[in-house]
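As a warm-up, study this chain.
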Amino acid sequence: MRRACLTQGVKQKVDLGIWSWLAQAVVALVAIAALLLIAMAYLPEIQKNERMRREIDRLTTEVDQQKAVSEQLQMELNALRNDPKTVERLAREKLGYARADETVIRFETNAAAR
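Now compare it with the structure written out below.
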């Protein structure tokens, strides 16, 4: 038969004085150092991620601008294909064309006056 120890199951707190406080301080400092090392290891990745997000925002804005330009050009193209008045206006403005019964008068400007 085994003898039961009187202190079995009883937890005793032993006061080690300054040593227990120092041990707790060392554990806390080690934990803080570990957290700092982790933060320093991930800081470049966090900065890279932020740069990439700014680049995505910039490119998204550029894509939106290019879509607006594309829509404007598509509307101009449709007008040229389907509206004879637009074609006539551009022929008059850009090419200097006129109808048979019209007289075209051109005014030239002095290049130095500009």
